Amino acid sequence: EPLARCQWDMALINADAATRARATGAGVRVGVIDSGVDINHPDIAPNLDLATSCSFVRSDDPAILAGLASPTEAGNGNCTNKAAVQDVFGHGTHVASIIAAPVNGIGIAGVAPQATIVALKACTASTYCFGYAVADALRYAGDHDIDVVNMSLFADPYLYYCGNDADQRALMRELQSAARYAQQHGVLLVAAAGNQSTDLRHPILDTISPDGPEDVPITREVGNNCRVLTAELPGVLTVSGTGPVGYPGYTTNIASYSTVGGDLTAPGGDYFAASNTVQDAILAAVPPNSALFGQLDPLNAAFPGITTGSGAATYAWLNGTSMASPHVAGAAALYL
Fold first, then answer.
1. CA neighbours closer than 13 Å in the CB half-sphere of residue 167
2. Half-sphere exposure of 53 (CA within 13 A, CB side)
3. Which helix (H) or strand (E) covers residue 167, if one does?
4. In this structure, are residues 84 and 74 in contact, taking their beta carbons and an 8 Å threshold?
5. N or C: fewer beta carbons within 10 Å in the chain?
6. SS3 state at 259
C-alpha cells in the first residue's frame, strides 16, 4: 500500500504479504465498540458491514445532555439510523483501520485486510463511553454472529469499579453479564489495558473517577476488589502497548504510558521514543472532518507531520493501548 513504509507496527508483527498468503481474515466479523467509523473513508468502507453497524448511544446520554456531544450521534439502538454510526471524533476509525483496512491501493493495510468491520458505537465525540452503551453493544454482538470484538475504551463514569460500592457493583455486574452473554454466543473479547501507567494486578489509586460531565473526581485508594472495565472483564484478552521494539534508539519494552498486568502486548506507538518523531506512533485512518483530525491538522505546530494523506483519504499517527488492542483483534481474525 502507498503508506506501508510508515507502518513499522505491521513489520514488527509480520503482518505482511507472506502472512496474507496464508490468512486474510476473510469471512471473519470484527465488532469495534468505539466512537463509530467513518462510513465513507476509502480504507474503511470496502470492509464495513454498514447494515449490521449500529449506534447504542442514547438521546439521554450524559455527554449529550451536557452539550458535549451532538444528538445526531444517538442511535438509541435503532440500527436503521446509519447516520448515527458516523465517527465524529475519529478514534473508532483509527482503530478499525488497524484491524481491517483493505489492500486496495489506498493508504495502509490492516492486520486482517479482508475481515469484515461492524461498527458498534458506544462512544461520542466527547470521548465518553458510558457503560450502558458498552453493555448494549456487547449483547448485540452476541446476537449478530460477530466473531471478535475490540474495546479500546474504559466504561464511564468510572475507571475502577469497586465491589464495596452498591452503585459501582451494579454497573460492574451489568457489564460482566453483557460480556458473558457475548462470550456464550462465541464472541472473543479484546480490550485495551489503559494508558494510566499502572499495574492492573496491583492497583493503588484512582484519581479519575467518577468522570462524568457533571462529576468531580475523587482520589481514592483501590485494591483488587476494584476492576478496570472493560480491561478486567472475565475472559477478556487485555492488551498493553509498546513502541517500535528492536528499532535503533528504542530501549524500552513497554511504552511509558501503558498500563500492564494484562495478557498480551502489541504495538501501540511511543511518540519520539525511537526516531524522535511522531512517526514512532501508529499510522491509521481518521475522518478528515473529525475532531481528532481538526486538532492535529494542518501541520500542527507542536507535532509536525502527525497527519498525512493518500489521495483523498486522511490518516494520523496516534499513540496508546487503544492502538495496541486492534492489532490483537486483527491477529485473532487471521487465526479464525
1. 7
2. 29
3. helix 166-184
4. yes
5. C
6. coil
Name the grid cell of 95: 482503530
- State residue 103's pLDDT score: 97
- Amino acid identity, residue 264? L
- Cell triple for residue 174? 451489568
Cα-Cα end-to-end distance for the chain: 24
Distance CA 251, CA 230 (A): 30
Strands 188-192 and 237-242: parallel
Q: What letter would DSSP give residue 47? A: G
Q: Has residue 300 got a pLDDT over 90?
A: no
Could you give the CA distance from residue 134 to residue 223 in angstroms, rounded to a whole number?
24
At a CB cut-off of 8 Å and minimum separation 6, what does 172 contact? 161, 163, 227, 229
The string of pLDDT tens digits covering residues 257-291 is 999 999 999 999 999 999 999 999 999 999 999 99
Q: Distance (Å, rounded) from C-alpha 147 to C-alpha 125? A: 27
148-151 and 29-34 strand pairing: parallel
Cβ count within 10 A of residue 64 = 21
Closest C-alpha among 336, 293, 317, 334 to residue 9: 317
The 8-class DSSP code of residue 191 comes to: E
Cell numbers placing 23? 490468512
What tens digit of pLDDT does each residue of 191-218 get? 999 999 999 999 999 999 999 999 999 9
Could you read off the pLDDT of 140-164 as tens digits, one per residue?
Answer: 999 999 999 999 999 999 999 999 9
Pure H helices in 106-165 = 131-143
> How many Å separate Cα 241 from the centre of its chain?
12
CA 213 to chain centre: 21
- DSSP character at residue 73: G
The CA distances from residue 295 to 89, 91, 230, 306, 322, in Å, are 10, 13, 27, 11, 18
Helix (H, G, I), strand (E, B) or coil at 94: helix
Distance CA 72, CA 85 (A): 9
Element (H, E) at 160: strand 160-162
Nearest residue to 159 via CA among 221, 207, 89, 126: 207
